[in-house]
Amino acid sequence: MKFRSLAVAAVAALSLTALAACGSSDDKKDAAADAGPKTIDVWLMKGSVSDDFLKRFEAGFAADHPEIKANVQIQEWNGIGPKIIGALASKDAPDVIEVGNTQVAQYSASGGVKDLTDKKSDLKGDDWIEGLAGPGLYEGKQFGIPYYAANRVVVYRKDLFAAAKVTPPKTREEWLATTAKLNTGGNQGIYLPGQNFYVLSGFIWDEGGDLAVKDGEQWKGGLSSPEALKGMDFYKQIQALGKGPKDSDEAKPTQTDVFAQGKVAQMIAVPGAAELIAQANPALKDKLGFFPIPGKSADKPGAVFTGGSDLIIPEASADQDAAYTFIKELAGEKWQTDLAKTMKYVPNRTSLASSVGSDEGVAAMAAGAANGKATPNSPNWAAVEAKNPIKEYQTKVLTGGDPAAAAKAADEIITQALNTK
Question: pLDDT at residue 5 above 60?
């Protein structure tokens, strides 16, 4: 599964995309005229459901709710930001839209998303995983309903661990010691690129810091706090136990390709990365294992960035009650359990973590999701990632720069981006 960050669309895009927001208003009118089922239009994103799952869900939903016809349309992630903004600004929006969890604040700030705070109890909101529930909040109100999640784990070589006589570590301290033992004989203890800022985020959260914090009505960068600097120091220690480049991220070069060369003991990625490794080097297929990113103590895994999706209802929905019925079903226990098993995702509730079954990778991911978090909940966060001073900060520190000075410089850029109206 991809972790997504869409740039904030220009206001000018509203008029260009509004007409394309939804093409099925005639269906709704016809249904109303015939006094038949109410038709709702639903936008789900490509990759969030398989064809088989969608068929099962649609059949089950139709059987349980014959009064509603759900017209599900699969959308591409590429270019979806302007399209959603246009839909929210129109008078003929879809009734339900799947959005990236870190995008909820951006869309909610437009005023075009329905406040669903009063539905939280009905949807078992106290059981939602924080990495989806938190980003679904905007100014204290619940606009996004958690749909599904995915997060990074440690993918490791079982054979190399056995040869070094080590087992998956439970704490950061054990992780450093284990990785040092693996970083020998031509093998890299871990492949960790210098600019994987999502991994850095987890280390910072473990220390009690954050990438940015809100101070009254203003935001300010948080990298220069003592807690965040400790997180960066740990990143530097673990990154040094391998040959990951200090000036690029996991895509340059593609880290699964590096791992597939057979000289890497560990890397940090979503479990699906193992399939890509096995495709590139079939000899490694049965040698790969997974464990949650270790935390500071054995009783709690390390914090992880939670990627995934939330479901929203536009204010312009023609039938918000029917839209809510759809969301309640898709976000409910029955279909969350099915989705987790089918798609190897983390379900939206902590109590459903065991529903992933015996899949080792997904089980490790679900364990980590219990300590999942998201990027700062600001409508302007996409602007920060577009410039991404965090990556530049990481490179400066890893190449010998002063951490405090580099953090301060990055914080200035973050602060300006988050407070730009």
Answer: no
